[in-house]
UniProtKB/TrEMBL annotation, chain A:
Matches recorded under PANTHER family: SUMO-ACTIVATING ENZYME SUBUNIT 2, UBIQUITIN-ACTIVATING ENZYME E1
UniProt source species: Brassica napus (Rape)
Domain Ubiquitin-activating enzyme SCCH residue range list: 353-397
Pathways per UniProt: Protein modification; protein sumoylation
Family: Belongs to the ubiquitin-activating E1 family.
Biased composition, class Acidic residues, residue ranges: 628-639
Origin: domain of life: Eukaryota
Oligomer and partners: Heterodimer.
Signal peptide (UniProt feature, chain positions): none
Sequence ranges of Polar residues compositional bias: 575-604
Claim: rRNA-binding is one of the keywords in the record: no
Stated name of the protein: SUMO-activating enzyme subunit
C-alpha cells in the first residue's frame, strides 16, 4: 500500500516558492513545523473533544501522541465521537480512536492507554516526558488531578470543555498563567437533606428523592443508611413498624406490595409530614396520594399479568421495560398522574418478577431503562403531590443521569482551538496565549472570543502554597468528616496524608502494616480534639497527596455552631482570596455553573454521614449571555475587567 | 411539517443532541437535503458534522481527482493510492461519510455546478459552495433566489489560517429564546451579489479586514481565471494592483486592506487543519440552525483568523448607504 507523508506539506510548498524567488522560508513557518514535529503530546480523554482533537492533531502534523481514556464506547456517543462505529460499542475509546486515526495517517505514533488517569502509573515522571498536555475531560475531579500533575511536572496544560453550543479553551503554564484551580470551580450542587425528604420545591428535588432514597431503599444495598423515613415529628411510631413496610415477604403478591409502597411513600408519609404544622406555615402543603384513588382495583386484569408478557426470565435485564406494556412509546411525552402511577407499579413489578437477583445490589444507572422509568414515575408522583410541574421520561433521565447535552460541532471547534494554543505553547509564544470562549450568541460581534490569560493567583493553594483556613467544631467533628468533606471532596486529593506537626494522623497506601491501618481507622472515628495529637483552635494541619505532589497547610479555627441550611456540612473552608471570576469565563460559558467548567457531570450521588447532603444532579440548563465585555477603542483584543480587580490582577506579558 | 416521530434508533443515537436542540428540530434535520460543492479540508469538516447531525441527505459535487494536495487536511480520504486512483474527491468522500452515519443518504453529483438549471436546486433545502469562483457564487445564489421554495445559501472559503462564511437565507422567520420565552423573529438577507458589491466607504471602520481582502482575491481569481489555491507569492504584484484599483474606486485609502493579509492569503493556499475544524464547525452549526428554524442565524458574514483568535460576525449590506 503506497502512501504519502504529509507532515511537511505546508513547509515544502513554502520552501518551493521561496526557492523560486531565492528567499529563505519564513522563520515562523519553519519554527512552527519543527515545534510540531518535535513535540510529544499527551491527550487525556478520547470522547467528544478527544476524537476531534486526535484527528486535528494528526492532520496538523503531530506524530507522537499518547492518549488516556478509561471509558468504553456507548451508542449515545456515536452522534459526535465520529471515530467510533456501532460495531465498536463496548470497546476501549482510546484504542479505537487510535486505530481510526492511523487509517488516514498511518505513519504517526499513537500510544493508547485504557486506564484511569488517576492511576499511580501516571505519576509526575510520566507527565514529565511530554511537551504539552491536552485535556478533553468531562469531570472536575480528573481535571484537578491532571492540573496538579502538570504543575508538579512543569508541563503546560491546555484545558477545555463543551456543553451544547458553548465551549472554552484555556492555557495553563506554570509561573506564567493561572493554573486550572486558581479560580475556584464549583463542585456539583448538593441539597440539604430536609429539602429532599420533606420540603421539595423543584423537580430535581423529586428526582434526587426518587433516585437516592426510594430506589436505593427498594433495590439498593440494605445496609446503607437511608433517610426515607425521616420525619419531622420524631414522636411518631417506632421505626420497626416502618421497616416492615419495605420488606417484602416471599409469597407476597408483587402488585399488592407495590401498592403498599406507593401508599406508604405518597400517602402515609405525606400525611405524617402534614401533621407538623410548623413546616407548612409558609409553604404550600403537599397532598397525600393513595393508589386506590388513582388506579383501578387490580392492574392484572387490565394489562395482563407480568408473567404473560413476552419477556422470559432469561431475558437480558436491559431490555425489560414497563412502557411498552402500558402502550407508552414516546419518551418525550408528558404522563399524567395515572400514567405515572401505572408505570410506578409496573416497573416495580418487573424488578421483582424479572430481576429479582439484582435486588439489594442495584444502583441507579441512566442506561438502565427500567430504573429510569421507575425513578421518573416516582419523581412525578411526588411532584404532583407537592404541586411541582411534571416532566417527561426524556427530561427526567437527563436530570437523574446528569446527562450533558452535546453536539459534534462545538467539539470540533474547540479541538481546533486547542491545537492552535498547543502550537503557541510549543513555540513558547507566551504573548500569544489566549483563553478562547465559544459563545452561542455574538458578544460585540464575536462568536469566538479570545481573552488574555491572567497571571497566577498568589493566593491559590494549589500553585502558590497559601495556607487555608478551616472553621470546624473540633469537639464534634471527626477526622473522617475532615478527610471526606474537605481533603477528598474540596481539595480533590485522592491519596491523602494528614499530619499535625510531627504526628501522622492519617494516610493511605499499599505499604502500610495492619497496626498502622488500625491506628488510622481508629483516628478517623475520633473527634479532632480527641486525636492522639489533639487538633484544636489554632492548630495547623499539613495535608498532602504524594501522587499529585501537592501539599497544603490548613489553619484550624474552632467554631461551635453552623447554620444547617447554609453550612450543612458543619465546616467552612476558606482563606484563599477567590479571584473574582470576572473574565468572560463566568458569564459566557457556563449554564448552571458560575465559572469556567462547562462540561460538568456530577461525580455521582454522595451519601456521607449524619448531617449529610444528598448530592444532586444538574438541573436543566439555562444558557447565559456574556455580560459586561469592555473594550478599549484602539485595542484589538477584548479586555474584560472588573474595575475592582484592575489593580490586583495583571495580564500575562 | 413535523410529520412522523423519530424512530427508536434515531432517538437513541441522537439523544445527546436532541437535548440541545429538541426533537422537533431533529425531525426537521432528518428531512433536509443538503448540496455541497467544492470539498477541501473545511468542507470535509462541515460534511462530517452535518452527517453526524443526521440530515436527510448530502449530495457532493467535486470532480477534481484525488492528489497529494487533496489529502492535506482532509481526513475523509484514506492515503491509499490504490483505493483512490482515478476517483474523484466527491466519490471518495462519499464512501467515508456514509460510514459516519448510515441513516444519512450520501451521494455524488457529477458536473459543473454553475451549469445547472434553476430547477436543479429546488431539490435542496441548503446549498453550500466551498472555494467557489465569484461567477459561480453569484449565479447559483441568483438561481436559489428565483425559486419559490426558500433554499438556504452558503459560501465558505478557507486559506492559510483564516476563513470566510457567507449566509443568505432571504426572508427568514425563526424563533429564539429571550429570557425564558420564545420570541418570533424575522430577518431579511441581502443576496450574494449585493453583499459583495456594497460600497466600501460607508462600511464601519472596525469591520473585519478579511471582508475586503477576500473581495480583492475574488477579483484576482476571476481576472486571471484561477481556482482556489492556484496562486503564489509571484502573484502578489498583480493582487496589489487590483487592491489599489478597488480602493480608488471605493474612495478609500490603500491601508483599508493590509498588504500583509493579502500576502498571507495568496501564499497560504493550503488550509490549516485547526482552522478547518473551526470554520467547518461554525458553518455546520449555521446550517443546522437554518434547517431547524431555531436560533438566531449568522447575519451575514463570519470571519475567523487564527492570528488574532477572533471569530466575528459581520453584517454587510446596502443598509449602510441608505
Amino acid at each position: 500500500m503506497k502512501s504519502f507523508h504529509f507532515s511537511n506539506l505546508t513547509n515544502l510548498r513554502c520552501i518551493a516558492y521561496c526557492s523560486v524567488l531565492s528567499l529563505p522560508p519564513p522563520m515562523d513557518q519553519q519554527q512552527q513545523q519543527s515545534a510540531i514535529q518535535g513535540a510529544k503530546v499527551l491527550m487525556v480523554g478520547a470522547g467528544g473533544i478527544g476524537c476531534e482533537l486526535l484527528k486535528t492533531l494528526a492532520l496538523s502534523g503531530f506524530h507522537d501522541i499518547h492518549i488516556i481514556d478509561m471509558d468504553t464506547i456507548e451508542v449515545s456517543n456515536l452522534n459526535r465521537q465520529f471515530l467510533f462505529r456501532r460495531s465498536h460499542v463496548g470497546q476501549s475509546k482510546a484504542k479505537v480512536a487510535r486505530d481510526a486515526v492511523l487509517r488516514f495517517r498511518p505513519h504517526i505514533n499513537i500510544r493508547s492507554y485504557h486506564a484511569n488517569v488517576k492511576n499511580p502509573e501516571f505519576d509526575v515522571d510520566f507527565f514529565k516526558q511530554f511537551d504539552v498536555v491536552l485535556n478533553g475531560l468531562d469531570n472536575l475531579d480528573a481535571r484537578r488531578h491532571v492540573n496538579r500533575l502538570c504543575l508538579a511536572a512543569d508541563v503546560p496544560l491546555v484545558e477545555s470543555g463543551t456543553t451544547g453550543f458553548l465551549g472554552q479553551v484555556t492555557v495553563h503554564v506554570k509561573g506564567k498563567t493561572e493554573c486550572y484551580e486558581c479560580q475556584t470551580k464549583p463542585t456539583p450542587k448538593t441539597y440539604p437533606v430536609c429539602t429532599i425528604t420533606s420540603t421539595p420545591t423543584k423537580f430535581v428535588h423529586c428526582i434526587v428523592w426518587a433516585k437516592e432514597l426510594l430506589f436505593a431503599k427498594l433495590f439498593g444495598d440494605k445496609n446503607q443508611d437511608n433517610d426515607l423515613n425521616v420525619r419531622a415529628n420524631k414522636a411518631a411510631s417506632s421505626s420497626k413498624e416502618t421497616e416492615d413496610v419495605f420488606e417484602r415477604a416471599d409469597d407476597e403478591d408483587i402488585e399488592q406490595y407495590g401498592r403498599k409502597i406507593y401508599d406508604h411513600v405518597f400517602g402515609y408519609n405525606i400525611e405524617a409530614a402534614l401533621s407538623n404544622e410548623e413546616t407548612w406555615k409558609n409553604r404550600r402543603r403537599p397532598r397525600p396520594i393513595y393508589s386506590k384513588d388513582v388506579l383501578p382495583e387490580s392492574l392484572t386484569q387490565k394489562n395482563g399479568s407480568t408473567q404473560n408478557c413476552s419477556a422470559t426470565d432469561g431475558d437480558d435485564s436491559t431490555t425489560v421495560s414497563a412502557m411498552p406494556l402500558l402502550g407508552l412509546k414516546n419518551p418525550q411525552e408528558l404522563w399524567g398522574l395515572t400514567q405515572n402511577s401505572l408505570v410506578f407499579i409496573e416497573a416495580l413489578k418487573l424488578f421483582f418478577a424479572k430481576r429479582k437477583k439484582e435486588i439489594g445490589h442495584l444502583t441507579f444507572d441512566k442506561d438502565d431503562q427500567l430504573a429510569v422509568e421507575f425513578v421518573t414515575a416516582a419523581a412525578n408522583i411526588r411532584a404532583e403531590s407537592f404541586g411541582i410541574p411534571l416532566h417527561s421520561l426524556f427530561e427526567a433521565k437527563g436530570i437523574a443521569g446528569n446527562i450533558v447535552h452535546a453536539v459534534a460541532t462545538t467539539n470540533a471547534i474547540v479541538a481546533g482551538l486547542i491545537v492552535i494554543e498547543a502550537i503557541k505553547v510549543l513555540k513558547k509564544d507566551a504573548d500569544k496565549y489566549r483563553m478562547t470562549y465559544c459563545l452561542e450568541h455574538p458578544s460585540r460581534k464575536m462568536l469566538l472570543m479570545p481573552v488574555e490569560p491572567f497571571e497566577p493567583n498568589p493566593s491559590c493553594y494549589v500553585c502558590s502554597k497559601t495556607p487555608l483556613v478551616l472553621e470546624i467544631n473540633t469537639q464534634k467533628s471527626k477526622l473522617r468528616d475532615l478527610v471526606d468533606k474537605i481533603v477528598k471532596a474540596k481539595l480533590g486529593m485522592n491519596l491523602p496524608l494528614i499530619m499535625h506537626g510531627a504526628s501522622l494522623l492519617y494516610e493511605v497506601g499499599d505499604d502500610l502494616d495492619d497496626i498502622m491501618v488500625a491506628n488510622y481507622n481508629a483516628n478517623l472515628e475520633k473527634s479532632l480534639s480527641e486525636l492522639p495529637s489533639p487538633v484544636i483552635n489554632g492548630s495547623i494541619l499539613t495535608v498532602e497527596d504524594l501522587q499529585q505532589e501537592l501539599s497544603c497547610k490548613i489553619n484550624v479555627k474552632h467554631r461551635e455552631e453552623f447554620d444547617e441550611e447554609k453550612e450543612p456540612e458543619g465546616m467552612v473552608l476558606s482563606g484563599w482570596t477567590q479571584s473574582p471570576a470576572t473574565n468572560g469565563e463566568s458569564a459566557s460559558t457556563s449554564n448552571n455553573e458560575s465559572a469556567v467548567d462547562v462540561t460538568e457531570s456530577s461525580s455521582g450521588p454522595e451519601i456521607a454521614s449524619k448531617k449529610r447532603k444528598l448530592s444532586e444532579t444538574q438541573p436543566e440548563n439555562h444558557k447565559r449571555e456574556t455580560e459586561n465585555v469592555e473594550s478599549e477603542d484602539d485595542d484589538d483584543l477584548v479586555e474584560i475587567e472588573n474595575p475592582m480587580t484592575v489593580s490586583k490582577k495583571k495580564r500575562v506579558a | 411539517m413535523d410529520g412522523e416521530e423519530l424512530t427508536e434508533q434515531e432517538t437513541a443515537l441522537y439523544d445527546r443532541q436532541i437535548r440541545v436542540w429538541g426533537a422537533n428540530a431533529q425531525r426537521r434535520l432528518t428531512k433536509s437535503h443538503i448540496l455541497v460543492s467544492g470539498i477541501k479540508g473545511t468542507v470535509a469538516e462541515f460534511c462530517k458534522n452535518i452527517v453526524l447531525a443526521g440530515v436527510g441527505s448530502v449530495t457532493l459535487m467535486d470532480d477534481s481527482l484525488v492528489n497529494e494536495e487533496a489529502l492535506n487536511a482532509n481526513f475523509l480520504i484514506p492515503p491509499d493510492e490504490n483505493a483512490y486512483r482515478g476517483k474523484t474527491v466527491a466519490e471518495i468522500c462519499c464512501d467515508s461519510l456514509k460510514d459516519f452515519n448510515p441513516m444519512v443518504l450520501v451521494s455524488v453529483e457529477k458536473g459543473d455546478l454553475s451549469a445547472r438549471s434553476t430547477e436543479f436546486f429546488e431539490k435542496f433545502d441548503v446549498v453550500v459552495i466551498g472555494y467557489g469562483s465569484l461567477a459561480t457564487k453569484k449565479a447559483v445564489n441568483e438561481k436559489c433566489r428565483k425559486l419559490s421554495k426558500r433554499v438556504a445559501f452558503y459560501t465558505v472559503d478557507c486559506r492559510d489560517s483564516c476563513g470566510e462564511i457567507f449566509v443568505d437565507l432571504q426572508d427568514y422567520k425563526y424563533t429564539k429564546k429571550k429570557l425564558e420565552e420564545k420570541v418570533e423573529c424575522e430577518l431579511n438577507f441581502p443576496s450574494f451579489q449585493e453583499a459583495v458589491s456594497v460600497p466600501w466607504k460607508p462600511i464601519p471602520r472596525r469591520t473585519a479586514k478579511l471582508y475586503f481582502a477576500m473581495r480583492v482575491i475574488e477579483v484576482f481569481e476571476e481576472n486571471e481565471g484561477r481556482k482556489h489555491g492556484q496562486c503564489s507569492l509571484l502573484d502578489l504584484p498583480t493582487v496589489l494592483e487590483i487592491k489599489k484599483k478597488l480602493c480608488e474606486a471605493n474612495t478609500v485609502s490603500e491601508s483599508h486592506v493590509p498588504d500583509s493579509l493579502l500576502e498571507r492569503l495568496i501564499t497560504g493556499t493550503i488550509e490549516f487543519p485547526p482552522a478547518c475544524a473551526i470554520v467547518g464547525g461554525i458553518l455546520a452549526q449555521e446550517v443546522i440552525k437554518a434547517v431547524s428554524g431555531k436560533g438566531e442565524p449568522l447575519n451575514n458574514f463570519f470571519y475567523y483568523d487564527a492570528q488574532d483568535g477572533k471569530g466575528v460576525m459581520e453584517n454587510i449590506s446596502n443598509s449602510f448607504t441608505s
